[in-house]
Design a protein that fits this description.
The chain has 7 helices and 7 strands. The protein has 190 residues and is an alpha/beta fold. The protein has one domain: Rossmann fold, CATH 3.40.50.450. A 7-stranded parallel β-sheet has the order 4-3-2-1-5-6-7, with helices on both faces. Helix 1 packs across helix 2 and helix 4 packs across helix 5. The longest helix is centred in the C-terminal third of the chain and has 18 residues.
Length: 190
């Protein structure tokens, strides 16, 4: 039964747009991450970009899900011609005109949780925004890049553990994240 009084849970997938440094299995894991988000009737939110988020979007669409992209560009033309970003596998793309830094802020704020897979500096930026705002974060370990460095970054930041869940299995990670979200929403009388 569909609950018309509650919006769907939105899960952001943050990760490397350029995946040359990611693990050999990172793209397959990202595809499965997108599938799991769709199978759990959630909306996938991405930075409307290439790489890890693109593969998650592809997985979500293959599983019949909804994908919402948030672009750094001001228009579809700029998205395609200046930023050279894709539009396929997205149901809706919001063009922010905010550049990458502004897009990252909007991307993390609009989601109920942020999942980090592989990643470079932009992914670290999205992680730190989510961490600073006490947002729930899932980390898909074993994908390389920032995702495999985050435990050490948290430890060396001397800011406490935050609300961060680690797992190497996309299905288990999404289920753990959803359990946490639902518990939090119940406590908030949502």
């Amino acid at each position: 039964m569909v609950d018309i009084y509650r919006p769907k849970i939105k899960i952001c997938v943050s990760g490397a747009a350029e995946t040359g440094h990611c693990s050999a299995k990172a793209l397959d894991l990202s595809l499965e991450l997108g599938r799991q988000i769709a199978k759990h009737d959630c909306i996938l939110v991405t930075g409307a970009t290439t790489g890890i988020p693109y593969w998650a979007a592809k997985g979500a669409k293959e599983a019949g899900g909804i994908v919402f992209g948030i672009s750094p560009a001001i228009s579809e033309r700029e998205h395609l011609n200046k930023y050279h970003l894709p539009i396929d596998y997205h149901d809706v793309i919001m063009y922010t005109g905010a550049g990458y830094a502004g897009r990252n802020l909007q991307l993390t704020r609009c989601a109920d949780a942020v999942i980090t897979a592989c990643g470079r500096m932009g992914t670290l930026n999205e992680f730190t925004i989510a961490f600073e705002e006490n947002k729930l974060i899932g980390v898909l370990e074993g994908t390389g890049g920032m995702a495999d460095m985050i435990r050490g970054i948290i430890e060396k930041s001397f800011r406490g553990p935050g609300k961060v869940i680690f797992n190497q299995n996309p299905k288990d990670l999404i289920e753990d994240v959803l359990t946490f979200i639902r518990e939090e929403k119940t406590l908030d009388n949502y």
